[in-house]
Amino acid sequence: MSDLEWLLTHSRHPYHRGSIEQPCQTGDIASRTCADRVSLQVVVDGPVIQQIWHNAVGCMVCQASISYLCEMFEGLTIDEVQSQTEVDYLEELGTLTPLRQQRALQSFRCLKQILESSATKAS
User: Fold this and answer.
1) Which residues contact 29 (CB under 8 A, 6 or more apart)?
2) Which of 39, 80, 107, 120 has CB atoms 3.0–4.6 Å from 66's, for a disulfide?
3) Which domain holds residue 98?
4) Is residue 110 part of a domain?
């Protein structure tokens, strides 16, 4: 997928936008610098992330990146997701300006916080 193809595809046809009845974990993050707000609901079965659903309010990059994230990380194990860095995630998205990178990272940071929070509760 080209650098902008994912952006256009996911902004026009968001993947797993909405809510699920019984998420295992939830989380949300609001931007401190703009009106972007992302919310994630995650269903985990053992070590595997079965489903990720989202609601996002904000710019096209914010909304497209959270949709892309849901599609990208579903089916992976928690350890596989935890091993991903912000740099890894941005490389998947392609070339973005620094401001757009921050918008795209909002959803990634939200997912990481959810998984870290659930790991802390399990300990």
Assistant:
1) 37, 38, 106, 109, 110, 113
2) 107
3) 5-114
4) yes
